[in-house]
Write a structure and sequence with these properties.
By secondary structure, this protein is of the alpha+beta class. The chain has two domains: 72 residues, SH3 type barrels, CATH 2.30.30; 101 residues, no CATH class. The strands form three sheets. The protein has a five-stranded antiparallel β-sheet. A five-stranded antiparallel β-sheet has the order 6-7-8-11-12, with helices on one face. Strand 9 and strand 10 form a beta hairpin. 19% of the residues are buried.
Length: 195
């Protein structure tokens, strides 16, 4: 039904009102001017903001006055977003431990570790999220290695995960979601909680 409405709007140059269960405001109604539809992805201009974005067709439904959402009840509940690393650790430690992780927190950093077969902690984390406000360069001056060119990072949240490319985030909420995704994909017990 939504696909037909999008195709009609593309052909006529019109707009449609949808509920979109992705992005920063899942379930929010948006008025869109669809530009193209290909491989389940809708390229559309958001009328209130004027921004052109890509939306996933599977996360979209027509917003009809007085008709409740069908998708709202079928999508998983998004994880809780926290305002600090301390709150994040308190909120998610039990679930992370059920995935087989040893959770360590130090200031504005949280890391996930495995154990050796002998029961000792592997010190190098498999997944870590750190707040690094300042970036700098290391330069050898002929005698010593010194830090130079100190600058504030625009993306201070650094996510490192074993066998994954390190990612940086300017938004703590997005960093949390990526951390939880990495924790699940690399979990010692295969990503399913212990029984």
């Amino acid at each position: 039904m939504v696909q037909e409405a999008i195709l009609k709007a593309i052909d006529s140059g019109g707009s449609i009102r949808v509920r979109y269960f992705g992005g920063s405001s899942p379930g929010a109604e948006r008025e869109l001017h669809p530009l193209s539809l290909k491989d389940g992805k809708v390229r559309a201009r958001c009328i209130p903001t004027g921004e052109t974005k890509t939306f996933l067709l599977e996360k979209m439904e027509l917003a009809v006055e007085g008709v409740p959402s069908v998708l709202a009840g079928t999508l998983p509940v998004p994880p809780t977003i926290c305002s600090s690393v301390e709150e994040f650790a308190a909120c998610h430690t039990n679930n992370l431990q059920q995935l087989g992780w040893i959770v360590q927190r130090d200031g504005e950093a949280i890391s996930l570790h495995r154990m050796f077969k002998n029961g000792k902690l592997i010190k190098t984390p498999d997944v870590s999220l750190n707040f690094e406000a300042i970036a700098y360069d290391l330069v050898f001056d002929g005698e010593d290695v010194v830090e130079t060119n100190h600058r504030e990072r625009s993306r201070p949240w650094v996510l490192s995960a074993k066998n994954h490319t390190t990612k940086t985030f300017g938004d703590f909420a997005k960093a949390q979601l990526a951390f939880l995704e990495a924790a699940k994909s690399l979990a010692p017990n295969g990503g399913t909680p212990d029984a």
